[in-house]
Amino acid sequence: MSDAQIVDSSFSAIIQAPIERIDLPAWAFSLPDAEYQGCSPAHVAAGATTSPDGKRMSINVEVIGGSPMVQHYVERLAERDHLILESVSDVFTPNGRTTINVVWELRVAQLDAHRCEFTNHVRSSATSEMLALLDRQGIPFEVFRAQRQPMSIAHNQGETPLFAASIERFALRA
Q1: How far apart are alpha carbons 108 and 164 in whole angstroms?
Q2: Where are the domains positioned within the chain?
Q3: Which class does domain 5-173 fall in?
Q4: Which of 24-28, 120-124, 138-142, 170-174 has the lowest mean pLDDT?
Q5: Which of 5, 39, 135, 169 could form an SS bridge with 162, CB 3.0 to 4.6 Å?
Q6: What domain of life is recorded for the organism (predicted)?
Q7: Pairwise CA distance, residues 115 & 138, whole Å
């Protein structure tokens, strides 16, 4: 774990669909708001746009540990079975607004002709802005990390099977 890393969390779930029907980028960049909300009680809203350089972007709003977050996920790798999105996310804390770096990686691997394993991998790290906010408050980063990790890990664990079910519905609907 790097000095600024907050969490590195990965969970998997089964998708009952053939791998050739899976298209992670198509799912992520067309995810309806209500479908996103159904994947976690912490999910508030989702939408899609483009970044200033023209790359696809997924905008997600969620509340983790009482702190609202606006995530600006820009595609870094977009393959049908592997999607990597990166965000400098806004976090609204009781002590002010700051940012956090998040990498969201989704993968599917074929298990057999009719099933895939979906892996939801989330890594987050503090930005210099976040470290400065913590420093101004006299909060050691290690204390913040120890408090944030369980909430982030529990969130990822809870949303992973629901994301898998959403991806399955998307794959089978076509």
Answers
A1: 10
A2: 5-173
A3: alpha beta
A4: 170-174
A5: 39
A6: Bacteria
A7: 49
Judged against a pLDDT cut of 70, whether residue 37 lies above it is answered with yes
Tokens of 136: 């101004």
In Å, how far are 99, 115, 158 from 171, measured between CA atoms? 34, 12, 21
* Side chain identity, residue 132: A
pLDDT level of residue 174 (50, 70, 90 thresholds): low
Which DSSP string do the residues of the chain spell out, in sequence order? --TTEEEEEEEEEEE-S-GGG--HHHHHTT--HHHHHTT-TTEEEEEEEE-TTS-EEEEEEEEETTEEEEEEEEEEEEETTEEEEEEEEEEEETTEEEEEEEEEEEEEEEEETTEEEEEEEEEEEE-HHHHHHHHHHT--HHHHHHHHHHHHHHHHHHHHHHHHHHHHHHHHH-
How crowded is residue 110: how many other Cβ atoms within 10 Å of its Cβ? 14
* Amino acid, res. 92: F
3-state secondary structure of 76: strand
